[in-house]
Each structure stands twice: as structure tokens, then as C-alpha cells.
Specification:
By secondary structure, this protein is α/β, with parallel strands linked by helices. Helices cover about 40% and strands about 20% of the residues. Helix 1 packs across helix 10, helix 8 (about 220-225) packs parallel to helix 9 and helix 10 (about 290-300) packs antiparallel against helix 11. It is globular, with a radius of gyration of 21 Å. Bound molecules: 3-isopropylmalic acid (IPM) and manganese (II) ion.
């Protein structure tokens, strides 16, 4: 398969993790005989630095012209003001302009990482949740206002039936392939927009008779996700609730550094790690590239390259099994993001070769002899 991929590595740790993701795509192209080409674009703080805009027109044109987008992260300390253009604006504009309406965030417990998880082991083992967050509407994009005195402000949360249906269909279909359990998270006891979500989603349930649908208020869902996260399968929710719930769910697995996401629209798709730019970390590079690498697995699966996606997942699992990880996961002998990337690259090219030279890994040479 030929794929042209827009690479928006962005700010902070974005370029480091994205470079590892590209390395992994190159290994897949080599092993499975595909042709992937990469075209760079600016977004976020680096784009503001160079052009004054968080999403330059050129980047938008590039994204509309390629098959998929690989994004690193946006966010920079020097743009941490609330009254001027911010790096995050670039991401929001991109989502809106490309109609990326479904944000899909899978979270599962990895054996071996459970000790890093904040909850008791028995609550964590076996977690397998996917969040379908609406991404192109709701309070993020509703009318915003502030009065002349600067003392009263408002944000409108508006949804149409069509906006709810298009993401709900994806969530129902995903549930059909999984444990057939969909939980709608809303605040239908209070919000008009949530009442519409509930009405629309429950009306659609007849089309998916094999899927059990539950509805939970977001406050209750926040509690249940801590008390019994294993009870969840597919979570469907709006833009703001999805943003909050996704961060909560993401730490359940033991590391946010492993969590990938896909944002899907009618004609475009974007893949990025769930974590942000982490500009505070400076140049010490303890950042884990696995989330970005697993975003590549989601990209491959999106194009029905399932064997390839599994090869990436297996390589990441192997690195975890061998404790070839960055400092967030391993206190003894942590590796840099580049070395973790090198190992995963080599493993994809030589999965049968179990003769791994640990000494070489630590001096940054070929990992497999
Ligand atoms: C996310 C992020 C973004 C959001 C920010 C960076 C604008 O937190 O993708 O979850 O709030 O949607
Ligand atoms: Mn978020």
C-alpha cells in the first residue's frame, strides 16, 4: 500500500516521539512491502514562532492533501497566556477544519505495568475500555461571549441530532466487535444537550440489538471508573466530558505514556499520543515514545493493515516484557526514547531473533545481533 502521511510533530516532546513513530513506520514499510512517504508541517507553538499562527494555511492544505496525519503534541511554556493565540488553538482549528468528529482512545491494562497503576492490582488487571469522544462540536466550539465589563462570560454547548448520530454509529459498531456493551456518559438530569444525546442514542439502540446500552451521569461515571473500571467496554460521550473522562481513564493503565488515539472524520484521519507536549521536561528526554508508536498501530489498523498493526503492538509488548523502557516505567537502566525506538524498529525487522544484545542497546548500537 502507498500512503502519504502528514507529519505535524509540534512542540515539546512531540518531535522526539514522532521521530520514533516514523522509524517504526519505516520498519513496517520495509517488512511488509509498503511505501510510506512523509511530509512535514507546522502546528502549535513552533508554528506561532515561525508564522504567527498556530495552524498555518499551508499545514491545513498539507493535511487535506495526504492520506493520514501523524501528530506529536502541542503546547509551549512561552505561550501560556490566555488572552493571545495559544498552541492548542492549532489543534482545535485542525479538528474543526478537517471535520475530525470522533476521537477514539483505547485503554487497556498491560501486564507488567500494573505495579505502576494508582489503583489496586485486582481492579486494574483486565481493563479494556475504548472511549468515543465527540470532537468537533459541543462546548468547545459553541458561541463564546464576555460582557463589556469583563465580568460575565458564557460558552454555549450545542449539539445537533446528526452530530450525535455520526459518532454514536461508530461507537455502536465498535461495541459489536468487542464486549457489546456501550455506556453513554452525559448529564441528562441537568443539561438540555445531554437530554438530546440520551434520546438520540437510545433511539438508535434498536439498530444494534446485540449491544447493551447503559446511561450514566458523568459524576457517577467518574466514580464507577475508579470503583469498577472493568465494568466498562465502550464509552460514548460529548466533547468536554470525553476530554475529562479520557484523562481519568488514561492513568488507570499505569502509564499515559502508552496510550494512543485516533481522530476520525469523513475524509481525514489523525493519529497522536494521548499525552501532551510536556514542555516542563526540558531536554532530558525521559519521554516515552510508545504512545506515539502505538498511534502508528492505530493508523495501520485504520487502513486495514491488521497484520502490520499487530507487529507494532507485539514489538511494544516485547520491549515492555524485557523492561526496555524509558525512565517513567523503569528505574533500573532506563533507555532514551531513541533507544526504545531503535529496539522496536529492530524487533519488527527481526521478530524471530531472540538473541538480544543488551549491552549494545545501552550504548545505542544495533539492538539485535
Ligand atoms: C486533548 C487535549 C486538548 C483538548 C487540548 C490540547 C486542546 O487536552 O486532546 O484531550 O482539550 O481537547
Ligand atoms: Mn485532554
Amino acid at each position: 500500500m502507498k500512503l502519504e502521511i502528514a507529519v505535524l510533530s509540534g512542540d515539546g516532546v512531540g518531535p522526539v516521539v514522532t521521530a520514533q513513530a516514523i522509524k517504526v513506520l519505516e520498519a513496517i514499510a520495509h517488512s511488509f512491502d509498503h511505501v510510506f512517504t512523509f511530509r512535514d508541517g507546522l502546528i502549535g507553538g513552533v508554528a506561532i514562532d515561525k508564522t504567527g499562527e498556530a495552524l498555518p494555511k499551508k499545514t491545513l492544505e498539507l493535511c487535506a492533501d495526504t492520506d493520514a496525519i501523524l501528530l506529536g503534541a502541542v503546547g509551549a511554556l512561552n505561550y501560556d497566556q490566555y488572552d493571545t493565540v495559544r498552541p492548542e488553538d492549532g489543534l482545535l482549528q485542525l479538528r474543526k477544519a478537517l471535520g475530525l468528529f470522533a476521537n477514539i482512545r483505547p485503554v487497556r491494562a498491560y501486564e507488567g505495568l500494573i505495579e505502576h497503576a494508582p489503583l489496586k492490582k485486582e481492579l486494574i488487571a483486565g481493563i479494556n475500555i475504548v472511549i468515543y469522544r465527540e470532537l468537533a462540536s459541543g462546548i468547545y466550539f459553541g458561541k463564546k461571549a464576555i460582557n463589556d465589563q469583563g465580568t460575565i462570560a458564557s460558552d454555549i454547548c450545542e449539539y445537533t441530532q446528526e452530530e450525535i448520530e455520526r459518532i454514536a454509529h461508530l461507537a455502536f459498531r465498535s461495541a459489536q466487535q468487542r464486549k457489546k456493551h456501550l455506556t453513554l456518559v452525559d448529564k441528562a438530569n441537568i443539561l438540555a444537550s445531554s437530554k438530546l444525546w440520551r434520546k438520540v442514542v437510545l433511539a438508535m439502540a434498536d439498530q444494534y440489538p446485540d449491544v447493551t446500552v447503559d446511561c450514566l451521569f458523568v459524576d457517577d461515571a467518574a466514580m464507577q471508573l475508579v470503583l469498577n473500571p472493568k465494568a466498562f467496554d465502550v464509552i460514548l460521550t460529548d466533547n468536554m466530558f470525553g476530554n475529562i473522562i479520557a484523562d481519568q481513564v488514561s492513568v488507570l493503565s499505569g502509564s499515559m505514556g502508552l496510550l494512543a488515539s485516533a481522530s476520525i472524520g469523513a475524509t481525514c484521519c489523525l493519529f497522536e499520543p494521548m499525552h501532551g507536549a510536556f514542555p516542563e521536561q526540558g531536554g532530558n528526554r525521559i519521554i516515552n515514545p510508545m504512545a506515539s508508536i502505538l498511534s502508528v498501530a492505530m493508523l495501520l489498523a485504520h487502513f486495514k493493515l491488521h497484520k502490520e498493526a499487530i507487529a507494532v503492538q507485539k514489538a511494544v509488548e516485547k520491549a515492555l516484557e524485557l523492561h526496555l523502557t524509558t525512565a517513567d516505567l523503569s528505574t533500573k537502566n532506563p533507555l532514551t526514547a531513541e533507544k526504545v525506538g531503535d529496539f522496536i524498529y529492530d524487533y519488527i525487522l527481526n521478530p524471530e531473533d531472540s538473541n538480544i544484545n543488551f549491552e549494545n542497546i545501552h550504548v545505542g548500537q544495533s539492538t539485535i545481533i
